[in-house]
Write a structure and sequence with these properties.
Helix content is about 50%, strand content about 20%. By secondary structure, it is an alpha+beta fold.
């Protein structure tokens, strides 16, 4: 499965939930106004509360999904544009058995880098990969990692480079 399609599917779910939330809000307000004119405040508040509840639930889910996907993409883009490129050594490739999508587990690439100024070893882990990175990386090979100028904890392991060179659809 292509990683880009996976992100699009997550965004789509966020958009659908967000749109449903807005629809519930509009229905609730419309029902409130219509019943208020005919029945009064006591009868009109009930549909507003019910549809308001659905707005909060669906909106919370949808807007959270959209916010998380947008912040992750923004972080990656920011690091690739403004971060420092380092070449880490691939130390391992493992299946992430805690996640299953369509009866498949994603892979993670683990790599390390020794900071030449401090001698400190820094460990990095890629995002979940829905292709086998063993086709492109061997233990001991180098992989590009973009790190924040001031903080190694903010990083992005760029597994796209070799996969794209190998004409693999991501």
């Amino acid at each position: 499965m292509r990683r880009g399609k996976q992100i699009d599917a997550v965004k789509l779910v966020g958009i659908v939930f967000s749109v449903l939330a807005v629809i519930f809000l509009i229905i609730g307000i419309t029902a409130f106004e219509a019943i208020l004119k005919v029945e009064g405040m006591d009868e009109a508040i009930f549909p507003l509360l019910i549809f308001g509840f659905f707005f909060v639930v669906f909106g919370g889910i949808g807007f959270t999904i959209l916010g998380v996907t947008a912040s992750g993409e923004g972080k990656k883009k920011r690091l690739m544009e403004n971060g420092r490129l380092i070449h880490a050594v691939v130390e391992g490739i493992e299946l992430n058995t805690f996640i299953t999508v369509n009866d498949m587990n994603p892979y993670n690439v683990f790599c390390g880098y020794v900071d030449p100024t401090t001698g400190e070893k820094i460990e990095f882990k890629s995002n979940n990969l829905y292709f086998n990175p063993n086709e492109f990386y061997e233990i001991g090979s180098y992989i590009d990692v973009y790190v924040d100028q001031d903080n190694y904890k903010k990083y992005y392991v760029d597994v796209r480079n070799k996969a794209l060179e190998g004409n693999y659809n991501m």
